[in-house]
Design goal:
The protein is 26% helix and 35% strand.
Length: 537
């Protein structure tokens, strides 16, 4: 039997199976595009309206009929490329003939390993520079690598349906993803470049991500896929400015512990490293939400540890700002220790003492004051029922700082006297209801408390002593109201017999509760340390 007769015998059998299965079999009149039959399903019953029901399934079939004595088939690579990239389900179906009867059928569905094989061969031919000769190349499929199928219409329909269980759209999406990503490793792209650098430290700056827009040159950008490296299409080589954003290699926790802190600062962080030595130099960074710790090792075995606060973010909450104040004032903490735990190495604990600056005493007082202020602000917001996840800007925190420090001074007893800027004799031996406003973004926190006031001097200005201040409560207000207006509203709702109502602001009181600016932005601390050098890699 010649090849034409053999092919016609297989085609007749295939058409018969389709008829028995209720499928529409459309033959190719000129087989030059890799398929012999386009098989369409009828519309399936659907609960949807006609305009919304799913489209019927459709399959592409390349038929290769062989005698029982054959053990393989060969198909041209250009035809296989068309089948591999068609979004429809595509099959190679091989009827196996004994005499004039089909006794067996083998099927290759071009998904998964069979699709991967075609794509790999295409890349291999590309690497050889033979892109125009795919019509002269073939892929051989051994019959025992195909899925067996009974030679019947029922088996054919079951096989088609199993290949496309969720409909044509889902199938096309899944196959398209495979065509785009099959064989991609964890690091599929490789770039060859050079950087203009004056020293190994300049190169470390680049690879850790600090040197942005560094002058250099890209020589090649390669894609490593399916075991074959090829240049990336559309990429430009040549000189330019290069930046690198290194990916984290692990997770860690930074803890700052100090007697100055009621609770330690805990900062979850990412570990970034330069994974190779540059003339004996190494660098590792642990970057958290509030702190960045960078360790640089030198050829002589010494290490430099640089600790720097992370710049504020517009998405920070009150809790974030409290941690930021601590991070900016590390040099002011008393006997502070920094610990770093790496999540994937439980026994790896780095503990470093943090050295105080020359101005540590003054800065320590300012830092303590501001930690207290932000913590008190957080507590006030919680008492007022404010959403503690509300984001606040640096300007919001600055505006709230002085009013909170004033309240903190009253509560702590640090403000024991004040001078009045205008005659207020009625304050002497009086019960005073004190009302204050703390602006906080789009709202204000209105607090009030009680205290006793007695005069200690009348000339040249009136001086009063404060006794027994007691915080009472706090309310949440929309911005736009005035302190005087809130005093009037509270006076109507709270009955405090014989009390004097006072709005606590600077126009009335020339007291000593000046706000202290946030710790100034200092240069990152950087001191030689004896830190273990990491292993290579």
């Amino acid at each position: 039997m010649n090849s034409d007769d053999l092919g016609e015998l297989g085609a007749d059998a295939f058409r018969t199976w389709c008829t028995h299965a209720g499928l529409i079999c459309n033959p190719s009149t000129r087989d030059r595009a890799g398929w012999d039959f386009l098989v369409d399903f009828p519309h399936a019953p659907s609960l949807h309206s006609l305009d919304r029901r799913p489209g019927p399934q459709s399959c592409v079939v390349q038929l290769k009929t062989v005698l029982e004595t054959s053990d393989n088939i060969r198909i041209r690579l250009d035809m296989l490329e068309r089948l591999a990239k068609d979004v429809k389900p595509c099959f190679i179906i091989t009827p196996v003939v004994r005499g004039l009867e089909v006794v067996n059928v083998r099927v290759w569905h071009l998904r998964g390993e069979h699709l991967e094989r075609v794509l790999r061969r295409l890349r291999q031919e590309q690497a050889k520079g033979l892109t125009a000769e795919t019509g002269k190349k073939h892929i051989t499929f051994r019959l025992d690598t195909g899925e067996p199928m009974a030679p019947s219409g029922a088996a054919l329909r079951t096989m088609f349906e199993a290949a496309c269980p969720k409909g044509m759209q889902a199938y096309a999406s899944g196959k398209g993803a495979e065509v785009a990503t099959l064989g991609m490793g964890e690091v599929p792209y490789q770039v060859s470049f050079s950087i203009d650098a004056q020293s190994p430290l300049d190169l470390l700056d680049f690879f850790i991500g600090d040197a942005k827009n560094a002058p250099g040159e890209i020589s090649a950008l390669m894609e490593d896929r399916l075991g074959v490296k090829l240049p990336m299409a559309g990429t430009m080589a040549g000189r330019g400015e290069l930046s690198l954003e290194p990916a984290p290699v692990g997770d860690a926790v930074i803890r700052i512990i100090s007697p100055s802190l009621t609770l330690p600062l805990v900062d979850r962080a990412a570990i970034i490293t330069v994974p190779f030595e540059i003339e004996g130099h190494r660098r590792l960074r642990v970057r958290g939400r509030y702190l960045s710790v960078t360790v640089t090792w030198f050829p002589d075995g010494m290490a430099d540890v640089e600790i720097a606060p992370i710049p504020p973010s517009d998405t920070w909450t009150l809790r974030d700002w409290a941690s930021h104040v601590i991070a900016r004032g590390l040099a002011s903490l008393e006997s502070a220790v920094m610990e770093i735990d790496r999540d994937d190495v439980p026994e790896a604990l780095v503990s470093l003492p943090l050295l105080s600056s020359e101005r540590s005493q003054d800065r320590r007082k300012a830092l303590s004051k501001h930690i207290s202020a932000v913590r008190r602000l957080e507590n006030l917001a919680a008492q007022a029922g404010m959403d503690l996840e509300r984001t606040l800007t640096a300007e919001d925190i600055d505006r709230a700082s002085e009013p909170v420090l004033a309240l903190d001074a009253l509560e702590s007893g640090n403000l024991v006297s004040f001078e009045a800027t205008e005659p207020v004799e009625e304050f002497n031996d009086a019960t005073v209801v004190v009302v204050g406003l703390v602006p906080l973004g789009q709202i204000s926190l209105a607090w009030h408390g009680l205290m006793r006031v007695s005069a200690t001097a009348l000339q040249p200005v009136m001086r009063f002593r404060l006794d027994d201040f007691r915080f009472v409560g706090v309310h949440r207000l929309r911005n736009g109201g005035t302190l005087a207006g809130h005093v009037d509203r509270l006076r109507e709702t709270l009955a405090v017999e014989g009390a004097i109502w006072v709005g606590w602001d600077r126009s009335l009181i020339a007291g000593s509760f000046e706000g202290v600016p946030l710790p100034e932005s200092v240069e990152p601390t950087s001191q030689p340390r004896d830190v273990d050098r990491p292993g290579a890699g």
